[in-house]
Write a structure and sequence with these properties.
216 residues; alpha/beta; Rossmann fold; seven-stranded mixed β-sheet; two-stranded antiparallel sheet; 9 strands; globular; binds S-adenosylmethionine
Length: 216
C-alpha cells in the first residue's frame, strides 16, 4: 500500500537539504548519540538506516570501523559521494533483512530516527540482535511515541510533510511505547538507558525524542 522505498528515494534531495537547518539533529541528536556511545575507536558499528551518512562519517572520524545500510539507493549514493576511498562500507539494504551481513559482527548497532519509518520493527530488531556481538550495544533514537499523537492506541501508518523542503508526505508508523520496547526485550536485549532530552528553547514541556540503549 505504501511504497516507503520510493518515498525516501524521491525525497532524498529534500531530506539532504532539510538537514542543513535541522537544529534538533545538530544540537541534540548528534551530540547526545555520541555522548551515549562513548569511546568507539576501533569498534565495529552498524549505522542502521544511515541515510546520507553523516553519522557514519562522524563515527569513522572517531576511529570506528563503520558499515552503513539504508533502503534508499539515492541516499546511499549520496553517502558514497562523501566517503573517501573505502573508509566506510555502505550497502542498500532493508533493515528487516540484512542479507550478506554476518552474525555477531558489530560492537554497536546505531539507528537514528529510522525505526518509526519501518512497519515491521520486530524483523529489524531481530536483525540488529543477530548482527551484534554478545554484549554489544543497540542504540536507537525515535520520535517519542507517547506525545504528539491524539489517538495514542491507534497504531499504524501516518503521513507527514517533514518540513517546508518536502513537496510530499513521508509515511511513518506509530507504535505505542510497549510495542516499541517489548520486541527488544523479547528477543533478549537488556534495556540500559531511556533518555528523553529536554529542548532548551522549547516551553512545551513535552519530550519529543526518545533515545534507548540496549545490550545484547
Ligand atoms: C529520518 S531518516 C534518518 C536517516 C539517518 N539515520 C539520520 O539520522 O540522518 C530515516 C531513514 O530510514 C531509512 N529507512 C526507512 N525504512 C528503512 C528500512 N526498512 N530499511 C533501511 N532503511 C530504511 C530511510 O531511507 C531514511 O534514510
Amino acid at each position: 500500500m505504501y511504497d516507503i522505498l520510493n518515498e525516501w528515494d524521491n525525497a532524498s534531495k529534500e531530506w539532504i537539504e532539510s538537514l542543513k537547518i535541522n537544529q534538533v539533529r545538530t544540537n541534540i541528536l548528534i551530540p547526545e548519540t555520541l555522548k551515549i556511545l562513548g569511546e568507539i575507536k576501533g569498534k565495529r558499528i552498524l549505522d542502521l538506516g544511515c541515510g546520507e551518512g553523516e553519522y557514519s562519517r562522524l563515527f569513522a572520524s572517531k576511529g570506528a570501523i563503520v558499515t552503513g545500510v539504508d533502503y534508499s539507493e539515492n541516499l546511499i549514493n549520496e553517502a558514497l559521494k562523501h566517503s573517501q576511498t573505502n573508509e566506510i562500507e555502505y550497502f542498500v539494504r532493508d533493515a528487516c533483512f540484512l542479507e550478506g551481513i554476518e552474525d555477531e559482527k558489530f560492537d554497536f548497532v546505531v539507528s537514528t530516527m529510522c525505526l518509526m519509518a519501518i512497519e515491521n520493527i520486530e524483523s529489524a530488531i531481530n536483525e540488529a540482535y543477530r548482527v551484534l556481538k554478545p554484549g554489544g550495544e543497540f542504540l536507537i533514537s525515535i520520535l517519542h511515541p507517547c506525545f504528539g499523537f491524539k489517538d495514542y492506541f491507534n497504531e499504524g501508518p501516518y503521513r507527514e510533510i517533514l518540513s517546508e523542503h518536502f513537496g510530499k508526505p513521508i509515511t511513518f508508523w506509530h507504535k505505542t511505547l510497549s510495542k516499541t520496547i517489548n520486541p527488544m526485550l523479547n528477543v533478549g536485549f537488556i534495556l540500559r538507558l531511556l533518555y528523553e532530552p529536554q529542548f532548551s528553547n522549547d516551553n512545551s514541556q513535552i519530550p519529543k525524542i526518545l533515545l534507548l540503549k540496549f545490550n545484547k
